[in-house]
């Protein structure tokens, strides 16, 4: 056997081994949903009523206006919209590579030589090329680009949901703060009147100076709480301005103490059905599909590329002949290119694509589990909050009766001013506790709306 034959045989064997190593790597696509979602959720899918409320049920005219302003000027939304535009441009770039590529070039020159004198040259050449996609590589690249657009659209929806949720949350915090301020200011005015009465009774020798001091301390404490609430409200007002993308000094929200807090009980659909609409689940699913496509592309790299080229042109040393097109030429060719030896680079790329796909499977599984946990936790917190509110209302009724009885006994001289002050303070604390519990319940509803992936209307 000659040296040339040995070389050819060696190259053929080496290429076969290299391609066989690449083709032996496989990836099994799994159905994550069936493995994660418990069977009892599938069985009761038809038995659980649908959620019939959304973000709009929390709105009032002021909040609706705040949301409308934020949708036009929010920096986060603008950033997400720009990212979507970039993804669409990338898709157009990928799509433009699917068809025939054309190129045209022309040249004119003049050459001066000592022995023969000057000569002119003119040329006009055109080229067209098309890559035959036997293996579906271009379609897979187009699908990946389409998934990028989908992810950008979902990220825009996430920014929208997050913006509305933060606006609703912050707005109702201000509502509760204004209601607490109204309660404390009313209580402060009553305390000031009571202090005058206590001083009169002290002057008459009916009570001690300690009762006067206790009431004065109570008044100062109420003033401090009012001041703290004003500072906290200002902070929330600044946050509302930032969410709308406007300077804080140009935004001011009027008193909202007369706004009623909505009390909504959200009933979820079965988690299997609801979680299919969660933005993070959709992104995880799209990333998983993209990783499968990238793995297929890496596997397809072992196949040759077929490219068809057509070249045509007109050349002449005289401008008159060039215009007539007397000297015309064209060529057509089919080029087949395949990389045979690459020191294992293709095999490593396939392995990397497989590992990435397996990572996306894990990420998808984690997203599903986290989403299910968030829904269950929010539902549990919602029912717990409703129970806590009932208990707080019962405690308020009891405290109101006790406060009235203490006030009556104080008028009759049966209890001290300190006892009355203590009961008045307890009543205000209980009223504030109910306001806070209502706010907590509302925050739980917001949390559940986000956990269920419910989109605000645009």
Automatic annotation (TrEMBL):
One of its GO terms (cellular component) is cell outer membrane. It holds the Pfam family OEP. GO terms for molecular function: efflux transmembrane transporter activity. The keyword Transcription regulation does not apply. It is a lipid-anchor. It is found in: Cell outer membrane. SUPFAM superfamilies: Outer membrane efflux proteins (OEP). Its main location: membrane. InterPro entries: MdtP/NodT-like (IPR010131), OMP_efflux (IPR003423). Gene3D superfamilies: Outer membrane efflux proteins (OEP). Residues 1-20 form the signal peptide. NCBIfam families: outer_NodT. This is TolC family protein. The lineage of its organism: Bacteria, Pseudomonadati, Pseudomonadota, Gammaproteobacteria, Alteromonadales.
């Amino acid at each position: 056997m000659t040296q040339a034959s040995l070389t050819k045989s060696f190259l053929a064997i080496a290429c076969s081994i290299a391609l066989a190593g690449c083709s032996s790597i496989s990836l099994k696509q799994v159905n994550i949903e069936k493995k994660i979602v418990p069977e009892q959720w599938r069985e009761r899918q038809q038995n659980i009523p649908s959620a019939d409320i959304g973000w709009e049920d929390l709105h009032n005219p002021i909040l609706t206006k705040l949301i409308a302003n934020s949708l036009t000027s929010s920096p986060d939304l603008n950033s997400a919209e720009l990212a979507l535009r970039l993804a669409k441009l990338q898709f157009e770039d990928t799509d433009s590579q699917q068809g025939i590529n054309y190129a045209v070039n022309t040249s004119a020159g003049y050459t001066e030589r000592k022995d023969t004198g000057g000569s002119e040259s003119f040329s006009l050449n055109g080229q067209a090329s098309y890559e035959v996609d036997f293996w579906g590589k271009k379609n897979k690249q187009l699908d990946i680009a389409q998934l990028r657009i989908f992810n950008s659209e979902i990220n825009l929806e996430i920014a929208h949901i997050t913006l509305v949720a933060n606006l609703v949350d912050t707005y109702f915090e201000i509502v509760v703060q204004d209601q607490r301020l109204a309660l404390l200011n009313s209580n402060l005015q009553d305390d000031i009147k009571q202090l005058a009465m206590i001083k009169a009774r002290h002057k008459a020798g009916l009570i001690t100076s300690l009762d006067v001091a206790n009431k004065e301390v109570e008044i100062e404490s109420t003033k401090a709480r009012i001041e703290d609430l004003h500072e906290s409200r200002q902070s929330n007002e600044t946050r509302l301005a930032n969410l709308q993308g406007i300077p804080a000094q140009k935004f001011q929200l009027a008193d909202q103490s007369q706004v009623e807090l909505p009390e909504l009980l959200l009933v979820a659909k079965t988690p299997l059905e609801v979680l299919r609409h969660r933005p993070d689940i959709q992104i995880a699913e799209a990333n998983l599909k993209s990783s499968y496509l990238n793995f297929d592309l890496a596997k397809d790299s072992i196949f040759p590329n077929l490219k068809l080229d057509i070249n045509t042109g007109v050349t002449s040393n005289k401008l008159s002949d060039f215009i007539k097109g007397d000297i015309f030429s064209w060529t057509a060719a089919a080029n087949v290119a395949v990389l045979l030896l690459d020191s294992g680079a293709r095999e490593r790329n396939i392995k990397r694509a497989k590992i990435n796909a397996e990572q996306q499977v894990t990420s998808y599984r984690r997203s599903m589990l986290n989403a299910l946990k968030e829904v269950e936790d929010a539902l549990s917190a919602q029912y717990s909050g409703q129970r806590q509110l009932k208990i707080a209302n019962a405690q308020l009724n009891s405290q109101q009766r006790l406060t009235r009885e203490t006030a009556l006994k104080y008028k009759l001289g049966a209890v001290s001013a300190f006892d009355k002050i203590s009961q008045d303070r307890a009543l205000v604390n209980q009223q504030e506790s109910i306001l806070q519990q209502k706010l907590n319940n509302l925050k739980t509803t917001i949390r559940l709306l986000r956990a269920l992936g419910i989109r605000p209307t645009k």
